[in-house]
From TrEMBL, chains A, B:
Gene Ontology MF terms in the entry: DNA binding
PANTHER family: LACI-RELATED TRANSCRIPTIONAL REPRESSOR (PTHR30146), RIBOSE OPERON REPRESSOR (PTHR30146:SF95)
All residue ranges annotated as the HTH lacI-type domain in the record: 4-58
Protein name: LacI family DNA-binding transcriptional regulator
Keyword Cell division: no
SUPFAM superfamilies noted in UniProt: lambda repressor-like DNA-binding domains, Periplasmic binding protein-like I
Domain of life from the UniProt record: Bacteria
Gene3D superfamilies per UniProt: 3.40.50.2300, lambda repressor-like DNA-binding domains (1.10.260.40)
Organism: Piscibacillus salipiscarius
Keywords for this protein: DNA-binding, Repressor, Transcription, Transcription regulation
DNA sequence: GTGAAAGCGCTAACAT
DNA sequence: ATGTTAGCGCTTTCAC
């Protein structure tokens, strides 16, 4: 029951700890015969290496940190799980640092990161300053969907937000809408700005512009209130592009409470394809972001960096997005 | 930049490592004067203890494991975050073990748990056998909402599932429904069984019984299909109690697609009060479970166990639930 | 009040 | 092919 150590295994076999260690690490320098004997006893006693002793000696912990803004947000949780799936297979375990949008935690996180000696870090949705502080740890860092432009040396994995916005504009136009508004997260962050850019570019191809762009806090209630206000003020529109499904859901609710039919009177396209978007009524048409690919690619890239033991980058990886057509848009018309 | 060690601090000050260590741990045996000097240099060099060296020496890691079935499920993520909030304040960091409903991972988790030497463990939604295996680690373990009856020595924090079911029945009856069906997770697990018990007890008080109980897989589509089938087969009902919001959402969708009005023709009550339940249309009436309390109480209790260094229990803690009335039920009728 | 030294469990030179 | 040994960074007796 008490954990068995290398020394005890060695004593049982009458060999040295070095031999046991060699077998454990497959580092060669022993006969097939000893290998077999050692392995047997190891298994028999269910030997489990002491990670702290090993880490102290080797300066490698086989663990990586994952920093994200909010674990209760399905989108981030999915990315974390995808990262874990890949890293787990390679023998790494992960420490999640849930920032809870709380600046105080940053200091605590940095201390913990340093104290525990993670071998690498994946920073999801970080601001430039936050990421720069983390770089001082001198371990490989990968960003996923960064919120501000990083310096050139930072490897980044991101969704094709701009093309997503473009797809939304195109889809709305093809389905006959003409007076389109955009509902966007008020924060001046890269992914949202890029979605807006792409969206405008899509409209511009048809020599159109958004009728109106609302900048609102990132939550359902704000979106609901905003659409209700626009309606109350007599604003007339037949299409909405929301920068996130969260906002689209709020818009949908406001329209329904105002007695408007979706998609007959107003069509809506969201962004992210969160699980719930398929269960609203009507089900939300949206731009799909692949959290799986985001997480997997980030993990693969980090593993590569950790093995090659270099910190610098070879640029960005852009993960494609696509339109998921459901019920808040009409059948294709053109 | 390179991490500074106790030895370096000691050399700078011309004292021994022992003295620095004593100051660091507030263990006394030094003058106020030295304390001040040591603290100064510590701060100046931004000293950060090496967690591995410390852990190796003290056999304490100041970390606890949190095992849960699925991180991408908001319910579990919220519990994890609540646990973290409490433990973080006490200087613990947490390792999340996301089982992804995958039995293979259990072995990996146990190895990792042992190897990293966590000081305690919180097992969320575990089966008896799983928890028993974990008990062999000889560290304090707390269960949250266990899926099967544990032995008497296991401390458990759980929602009052039974009373929740009772509340749902009472609410449905008070709002005039008479032909009530229940939609439940098909798995034979404690929380769901208890909700059913309470629900039946509530009906029985009015000398009623559920018209029908459907056992279905735990996902939206299954619920939607089940209600669609019942409707197709001419089953007539005016109230639904779903054992989880997830199922309630599926039911709502099926009713809407069948042209039925909620709550006019059919009233629905769910369970859990997941974030999304307030944003469905109409918004879901549901039984609220406090993930915050569940997580906080589990963490507090674990801290106590770890400090007292005893493994046994003092029974169960039951966290209250309550009805959250929204739009899938009618106004109170008597 | 302070220092010397041992040792936690492991790996990696360096011997043999 | 195998053993001996030093040491990773820390805490904790035991001396003084």
């Amino acid at each position: 029951m008490a954990k068995v150590t290398i020394k005890e295994i060695a004593d049982i076999l009458g060999v040295s700890t070095a031999t046991v260690s060699r077998v454990l690490n497959n580092s060669g320098g022993y006969s097939e015969e000893t290998k077999r004997r050692v392995l047997d006893v190891l298994k028999q006693y269910n030997y489990q290496a002491n990670a702290m002793a090993k880490g102290l000696r080797t300066k490698k912990t086989n663990s990586v940190g994952v920093v994200l803004p909010d674990l209760t947000n399905e989108y981030f949780a999915k990315i974390a799980v995808a990262i874990e799936r890949v890293l787990m297979k390679k023998g790494y375990s992960i420490n999640i640092y849930n920032m809870s949008e709380d600046a105080n935690k940053e200091e605590l996180m940095l201390r913990d990161l340093e104290s525990r000696g993670v071998d690498g870090l994946i920073y999801v949705s970080g601001y430039r300053n936050q990421v720069n502080r983390v770089k001082e740890l001198n371990i490989p860092v990968i960003c996923v969907n960064q919120l501000e432009k990083m310096d050139e040396t930072m490897p980044v994995i991101e969704s094709d937000h701009e093309y997503g916005g473009y797809l939304a504009a195109k889809a709305l136009l093809e389905r006959g809408t003409e007076r389109i508004i955009m509902l966007r997260d008020e924060r001046d962050i890269l992914p949202i700005n890029q979605r807006e850019q792409g969206f405008k570019a899509g409209l511009k191809e048809q020599h159109l512009r958004p009728l109106h762009i609302s900048r609102i806090p990132f939550n359902v209630d704000a979106a609901q209130k905003e659409i209700a206000d626009l309606l109350k003020n007599g604003k007339s529109f037949d299409g909405i592009f929301a920068s996130s499904d969260i906002l689209a859901i709020g818009a949908l609710k406001a329209l329904q409470q105002h007695g408007l039919q979706v998609p007959d009177n107003v069509q809506i396209i969201g962004f992210d394809n969160v699980t719930f978007s398929q269960y609203s009524y009507p089900a939300l048409t949206t731009i799909h972001q692949s959290t799986d690919q985001l997480g997997e690619k980030a993990a693969e890239r980090l593993i590569q960096s950790m093995q090659e033991n270099h910190l610098d980058s070879n640029g960005r990886i852009v993960v494609p997005v696509h339109l998921v057509e459901r019920e808040t848009t009409q059948a294709w018309r053109v």
